[in-house]
Amino acid sequence: MAKKVARVVGVYRQESFLPQEGAASPPEGVAPGGWEVQPAGEDGFRRRLAACSSLAELEAVAAGCRRCPLRAGARQVVFGEGDPHAGLMLVGEGPGATEDELGRPFVGRAGELLDRILAAAGFRRGEVYITNVVMCRPPGNRVPTDAEMAACLPYLWAKIGLVRPRVLVCLGSTAARALIHPQARITQVRGRWLERDGMAVTATYHPAALLRDPSKKRPAWEDFQAIRDRCRLAVGLGGSVSG
Ligand code: URA
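Predict the joint structure of the above. Result:
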């Protein structure tokens, strides 16, 4: 287990998300968004992930993961699901109770709302890829700690590298902090776009936030209309122009 799992650095870095050929990734242990991960044995672990040539292989590695204490309190690892070559990838925070029970992401109340939003924007759930920053349920659905996020992030980068979506969407502030900037606030970054590794990256409110505060539904819907438009441009997905 890592002595020091993660340190948030103050400078906004824009390194690649993706595994670098033949090397531990990201370069020099610095992750996109400014996460710096330096646990002992990390290089070997990263190489193991980089050697996975499919999501199924990566999922088998994740199934045996004990990199953080969350696994001990969770029923199972909720890896992610969807089209392995999806043009659109959505990243939430972490599994809740229903996800922990069923082993699938976004299948509780927030997931039902996400399904409705996706359908309204013209996406079939099966044509996108859905996952989370952490794959094991945090106790009581608390926000994962920085250390838990840092432990799980290499899996997320590896998933992104294997799926290589054209459009990557952070659902809520945990995903935005993991993938856009460690100090990202969802109210500030939502609806904005950046380009990274050939992907258009954005953030919007987490569906659970929409359930708590319906006044966020309109801006979230505007975000999803923009996401649909980006996907149409990039891969012909969404808005009934299915890919
Ligand atoms: N919330 C998340 O962030 N992810 C899920 O899978 C379910 C609820």
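The chain has a mean pLDDT of 86.
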